[in-house]
Design brief:
The complex is a heterodimer of chains A (395) and B (506). By secondary structure, chain A is mostly helical. Chain A has one domain (35-164, 243-393): ABC transporter involved in vitamin B12 uptake, BtuC. Chain A is built from 16 helices and two strands. Chain B is an alpha/beta fold. Chain B has three domains: 4-242, 3-Layer(aba) Sandwich (Rossmann fold), CATH 3.40.50; 248-342 and 427-506, P-loop containing nucleotide triphosphate hydrolases (Rossmann fold); 356-425, no CATH class. The chains are: A mainly alpha (395), B alpha/beta (506). At the A-B interface, helix 11 and helix 12 of A face helix 10, helix 11, strand 20 and helix 13 of B.
Chain lengths: 395, 506
């Protein structure tokens, strides 16, 4: 088969997986063009990623919640409330950062389990249970900030989470003075690891005599992904390097991607989403997994709260407003199916990036906020239409 | 003789791959009670769906003549308009609405733009009197028992000036008293000029009430018998119902069972809190190593419920009694416990609760035993494919790759995936619930061959089946289940279709 035919075949078979990447490239290209390159500048991309962080971690958790056919509306104000708790613990209780962060994450898990309880035990729709949470945490946020209003956080370590960058390797100023060397190094390592991993997996598959991509397609994939990683690395290294936010998001995505694709736990979650009755009859404890998924959602809400509070360097009375809807939209744009059982963590991250790119690009173009909402709404519905049509038409 | 009210001539209805009705003729005289009997799958329900317009004109071939005119129904509304009403097994009432709202649902009495509730209630009360149901019309339907709900359904039909009332197994879910009441009511309606078609499995009822009986078998009319001529008796009905030639071939099999009992159930009772009634009563049975035990019975007799109550009780029945697995008394709280104890359950409803249709063959096969191919919670994807390939070969699952979604497979191959999934948990006791439902003859034979091989390897198989030839062809021993009880136990040498049907319809 010829090279072009191979490309066509691979694209057609994986249109759903690659469609989102293609859409993102198109959106980025359009904005780069309309803003005369401002969009793709190191500074803007770095900002864009940092702004996506607190929605991205929510979208990761929301993916699993939607996969098991539920929804969690409480996450936005839960994030806001737990951010305020973190601020109070730092400022008024004078607790050290390394106590505050685990404490808030544990509180998040507990809050998630609490949401799960009526859902798992009594079969109450998660929409209702989490709507109650939405109201309660909104009240809790107002209550905790009532006497003080906005709480300013002076702690430099905490604020670095949302604003800081990883340090550079010292003593290398003679070489590429304006470029972040550690970021560059990490990027190179990531590319090498990726290629090694891919080759390794391909060898294993061949050892079992399984079908693999044709060699030219395989090389094309390696080159493409390497260029992508390299490009992002170069752009980021050109500003301040990797931010702590991006590092945290990458770690979260890596863990969740691994759990959902490689582990028994992940497989059970997707089985429940695909057919809860069949999952139960296969010996899977649906109740227990509902607790686990909502517990993880709670923990990620706490993380989102920490990222946002740290980014603002303060806890405000309106923190977390509409986060839950942004996260849900990101998940749907990223190909998560409302019918359950389908959706990838990585897809949701791309979804979050697409939505944030739209905001960022339109801001740069000074498009009015009213039009921005309309455009984002249209993109959401188009993404879902694309998803549904390719799913029913596909194999 | 009076002219027929209804005549269905040469009705043929095909589903992909199956002829559900083959040239069926069915005629009902005005003012009679006409019973329609036949085994599960004989085509009774399909015939009634053709009549009521569920399968509209054009989806079947043949003529329907009702009230002297050829009818071409394009939907249920058309058949209702000429005066045909069907009451299904699963009642079609809205539980949260009141009795009077339900009776006039879809035919609301209007005064201008709004519903005239006073007139509605007045007319509903009249209807309730007609069916001798003494309840407040403002009661919500969900607060009534099944028997009373059925009467509400009849009242609903009567409110539309029904000429032909069709009842699909109306007494299946009723106790003795309610059943007797219902039959009395049907007789009374007959006296008021309502013609009635009754589908029933309970032959005694049929004999007691029918003016004539039509027997269907394998989608064809076998005969129509008349009570006036004294043609109806239990013996004759059973003979016509089961008189099917056994044309399925069963693989040859040697006796594989030993004396070792692997599964035993004693004094087993189950109460379903959702239905609010006892579903299993004092069930006792045992299965030996290497034995195929057939569970015969009619649909709704409680066989699936029995299987689920043993398999970790996922429906949350209230259970009483003792369960012994491999000689040890156990309690199983979740299917997970049952799997650990060595029991596997292949469901009768593979699409509903057996398979995950959006996932592929390999994921379905390994789902119930992922731990087997995982190390420290991480699934070995390559080992998974290997396992799936093994079952693909040994069960002859026809699929291009094990990465194919199971929704793209044929029924027979889906069933093999189900079987493979449950063999992968390495069970000692395999419960097969309607293992060959909806699959073609070739695939059936393959399933039988697999079963034969498994008992040779020392598995115990508990097979639930509504197909009598299959029960007779595959079992070593047969239990007959009727209304939640074991109504008989037969070694296969002593069993016959007639004997089983007799026990099942008791």
């Amino acid at each position: 088969m010829s090279f072009v035919q191979n490309i066509q075949k691979v694209l057609r078979q994986n249109i759903r997986e690659y469609g989102m990447f293609i859409a993102m490239f198109i959106i980025m290209a359009i904005f780069t063009f309309t803003t005369k390159g401002m969009f793709i500048s190191s500074r803007n991309i770095s900002n864009l990623l940092n702004q996506t962080g607190y929605i991205a971690v929510l979208a990761v958790g929301m993916t699993l919640v939607i996969v098991i056919r539920h929804i969690d509306l409480s996450v936005g104000f839960l994030a806001g409330f737990l951010g305020a708790v973190a601020a109070i613990a730092l400022v008024f209780w004078k607790l050290p950062v390394f106590v505050v962060i685990p404490l808030v994450l544990v509180l998040g898990v507990l809050a998630g389990l609490l949401t799960a309880m009526p859902v798992a035990q009594l079969g109450i729709p998660s929409f209702v249970a989490s709507l109650a949470g939405w109201l309660i945490y909104r009240g809790a946020l107002l209550l905790s900030t009532m006497s003080t209003g906005t709480i300013i956080i002076p702690d430099a370590t905490f604020n670095a989470i949302g604003n800081g960058y990883i340090p550079d390797i010292p003593g290398l100023d003679f070489f590429l003075p304006k470029v972040h060397k550690l970021t560059l190094l990490l990027g190179v390592i990531a590319i090498i690891l990726f290629i090694a991993n891919e080759i390794n997996a391909r060898r294993k598959k061949q050892a079992y005599n399984f079908e693999v991509l044709p060699l030219d397609m395989f090389i094309l994939k390696l080159v493409f992904v390497s260029l992508l990683l390299g490009g992002v690395t170069w752009v980021l290294a050109g500003y301040n390097g990797l931010s702590w936010t991006v590092v945290i998001v990458l770690v979260v995505v890596a863990i969740y991607h691994f759990v959902t694709t490689q582990t028994v736990l992940g497989r059970h979650i997707y089985a429940i989403g695909g057919n809860p009755e069949a999952a139960e009859l296969s010996g899977i404890n649906v109740k227990k997994l509902t607790y686990i998924v909502f517990g993880s959602m709670g923990m990620l809400s706490a993380l989102s709260g920490i990222l946002f509070t740290s980014r603002l360097q303060s806890a405000t009375t309106t923190a977390g407003t509409l986060f839950e809807l942004d996260a849900i939209a990101a998940a749907y744009v990223g190909g998560v199916s409302a019918a359950g059982g389908v959706g990838k963590v990585t897809g949701s991250i791309i979804g979050a990036l697409v939505m944030m790119s739209l905001t960022s690009g339109m801001n740069l173009m000074s498009i009015d906020i009213s039009l921005q909402y309309i455009v984002r709404g249209a993109v959401l519905v188009l993404a879902v239409i694309f998803d549904v049509t390719t799913r029913t038409r596909g194999k | 003789m009076t002219t027929p009210l209804l005549e269905m001539r040469n009705i043929t209805k095909e589903f992909p791959g199956v002829k559900a009705l083959n040239n069926v003729s069915f005629s009902v005289a005005e003012g009679e009670i006409h019973c329609l009997v036949g085994e599960n799958g004989a085509g009774k329900s399909t015939l009634m769906k053709v009549l009521s317009g569920v399968y509209p004109y054009g989806e079947y071939s043949g003529d329907i003549i009702f009230g002297g005119e050829v009818q071409r129904f394009s939907g249920i509304r058309d058949s209702e308009r000429v005066g045909i009403a069907i009451i299904y097994q699963e009642l079609a009432l809205v539980p949260e609405l009141t009795v009077y709202e339900n009776i006039f649902l879809g035919h609301e009495i209007r005064k201008g733009l709004v519903v005239d509730w006073n007139e509605t209630i007045r007319r509903a009360s009249q209807m309730l009197k007609k069916v001798r149901l003494d309840v407040n019309p403002a009661t919500k339907v969900k607060d009534l028992g099944v028997g009373k709900q059925q009467l509400v359904e009849i009242a609903k039909a009567l409110s539309r000036d029904v000429k032909l009332l069709i009842l699909d197994e109306p007494t299946a879910a009723l106790n003795e008293d309610d059943s007797a009441n219902l039959l009395d009511l049907i007789r009374e309606l007959k006296a008021h000029g309502v013609t009635c078609v009754l589908i029933s499995h309970k032959l005694r009822e049929v004999i007691a009430i029918a003016d004539s009986v039509t027997v269907l078998r394998d989608g064809q009319t076998v005969c129509t018998l008349s009570a006036a001529k004294g043609e109806i008796s239990e013996h004759v009905l059973i003979k016509h119902m089961v008189g099917r030639e056994i044309n399925n071939i069963y693989p040859p099999r040697e006796r594989a069972y030993t004396d070792e009992v692997t599964l035993e159930v004693r004094n087993w009772h189950a109460y379903d809190p959702n239905l609010g009634r006892q579903i299993l009563k004092d069930v006792n049975f045992h299965v030996r190593k290497g034995e195929i035990v057939g569970f015969a019975g009619l649909m709704g007799s409680g066989r699936t419920e029995l299987a689920l109550s043993i398999f970790g009780n996922p429906e949350g029945y209230h259970l009483q009694g003792e369960l012994y697995v491999k000689g040890r008394k156990t309690t199983l709280h979740h299917p997970h416990d049952a799997i650990k104890a060595g029991i596997a359950y292949v469901t009768e409803d593979r699409k509903g609760n057996g398979l995950i249709l959006i996932q592929d063959v390999k994921q379905n096969i390994t789902l119930a035993n992922l731990e087997e191919i995982a190390r420290r919670g991480v699934v070995d994807g390559n080992a998974e494919v290997k396992v799936a390939e093994e079952y693909k070969t040994s069960l002859n699952i026809k699929t291009p790759t094990v990465e194919q979604k199971v929704s793209n497979l044929s029924g027979g191959n889906q069933q093999k995936v189900c079987v493979g999934k449950w063999l992968f948990v390495k069970p000692d006791i395999l419960i097969l619930d309607e293992p060959t439902r909806g699959i073609d003859v070739g695939a059936k034979y393959e399933i039988y061959t697999i079963m034969t091989r498994l008992v040779q390897q020392g598995l115990s198989i508990l097979m639930i089946s509504s197909e009598l030839p299959e029960i007779l062809g595959m079992s070593d021993r047969i239990y007959v289940v009727s209304s939640g009880r074991i109504s008989g136990e037969l070694p296969v040498e002593e069993a016959s279709q007639e004997k089983i049907m007799h026990l099942a319809t008791n």
